[in-house]
Request: fold
Amino acid sequence: MDIMTFVVGVAFVFGAHIGSFVNVVALRLHTGEPIARGRSHCADCRHVLEWFELVPLVSYLVLRGRCLTCKKTIAVRYFGVEVVMGILFAAAAGGLFVLDDPLSWLSIALWFVVIAGLGIIFLYDLDHYLIPNVVLYPLFVVTAIGIAVLYPDEFLIRVGVGFSAALFFYIIHVVTKGRGMGLGDVKFSLLIGVLLGPVLTISAMFVAFVSGAAVGLVLIARQQKQLSSQIPFGPFLVGGTLLIGILSFYFDISQLMQWYMY
Ligand SMILES: [Zn+2]
Reply:
């Protein structure tokens, strides 16, 4: 096995474990249970999970998505988050092996933290229509320090991009009287600008708006949502940011966007 296959494989397994952690944090942030303490337990019968029930992906498949004790179905979402986090970590780690311009380990480490943080934001906003500051603020600090170290020459430009994006979202927030964008989205867009820089931020926002509109229209067509009802925008921002950010390791995004536009 070559080194790349090994590193990407390890990143997948690591990502799946982080995915299982992301699931727990998103849940416990809301219930107020301590995040680090207390073993994981079944949401139905409170049975404390054995070590072999805690192995991500494998345990779900072996137990066929049921609690060992009460046999209640475990939401497939937990499994899905573990798979997606594994894939994102693997895709990010692959950036170490890009031929012309491989990413540094520091850069990969920053992206691992960002992927985990955005994963929590995705799940929490989806459930509660709120981007938790307790996740957003520390993630912003880590991102800003990471970008300042990795791209010292671009740092101020990126901060400028962040504030421009935040201003843009704030205007939408005011014009739509808070029904379009929450203040959480405004703060979140500042982080995205600092993380991605000018070209990628615009691309990520574009993906977020197009996918958000598409999903919104589908939900309205299937009459699951009224035109006036809210769909959280945070998950789409997370999707656009991770998609464009990770694709940018492998492709020239500005060329990709031009190809899409014409
Ligand atoms: Zn149970």
Q: What stands out?
A: The radius of gyration is 19 Å.
